[in-house]
Amino acid sequence: MNWQNRLITIYLYVCKHYQQTLWVYSQRMSNHADLSFSDEEVITLFLFGVMDKHREIKGIYEYADRHLRDWFPRLPSYVAYVQRLNRVADVFAPLLALIQQEQETRNAGQVWLTDSFPVILARQGRRFNACVAKQLADSGYCSTKKLYYHGVRVHIIGRRQPSSLPIPEYIGVTGASDHDGKIFDQIRPQLHNNELYGDKAYQRA
Question: For tag attachment on the chain, is the N or C end more exposed, with fewer CB atoms within 10 Å?
Fold first, then answer.
């Protein structure tokens, strides 16, 4: 698929789901806001930039400004684009969930790999006084590193891709104290008709 068809496909996909359900997650504009550049275009441009391996919003915007003006004639200034992107930021989580559900339907019977890793915000004795991300982070133990820490755990299930790294299907973040097996039990009902491989922390009857 060439880049033009990819851009059109992303736009149509975003329009379909945004108009059906995703619009409820975006912040409402005032009556005098300029909406000539639509929310669907804001989201499409960001997704297209990420798929084109741009990792920063500024890089995404500069590429669009240089090369995609014919496709986005109403593209606002960089500052205005960032403000609009912030207003639709809550759309991306349910959009990712929709993509994952459709991917699972298309790829029943796949081979998956699951694991988790710690994100350490404070270690050893300092964990008792840590104040970072208290709403989510807490104290836990990483057996691999033999380390007590304050932080979170990132849980990933990836779909097997021959001769390459697995493609992430599920990504979740929990407190450091949440055991891998406990989190796995929560998502296991969604993993039917697939082979799943993990370490002994995921062993179940």
Answer: C
Tokens coding 55: 């990792």
Q: Nearest-CA neighbor of 175 among 204, 145, 132, 144?
A: 132
Interatomic CA distance for residues 26 and 49, integer angstroms: 20
The strand pair at 111-123 and 195-197 is best described as parallel
Q: 142: which residues sit within 8 A by CB, 6+ positions away?
A: 118, 120, 148, 149, 176
Cα dihedral sign for 190, 194, 200, 205? positive
Around 147, how many Cα atoms within 13 Å sit in the side-chain half-sphere?
A: 16
DSSP E strand stretches across 76-164: 111-123, 138-142, 147-159
Residues 56-86 have pLDDT tens digits of 999 999 999 999 999 999 999 999 999 999 9
Cα separation, 87 vs 68, in Å, equals 22
Residues 13-28: tens digit of each pLDDT: 999 999 998 988 887 7
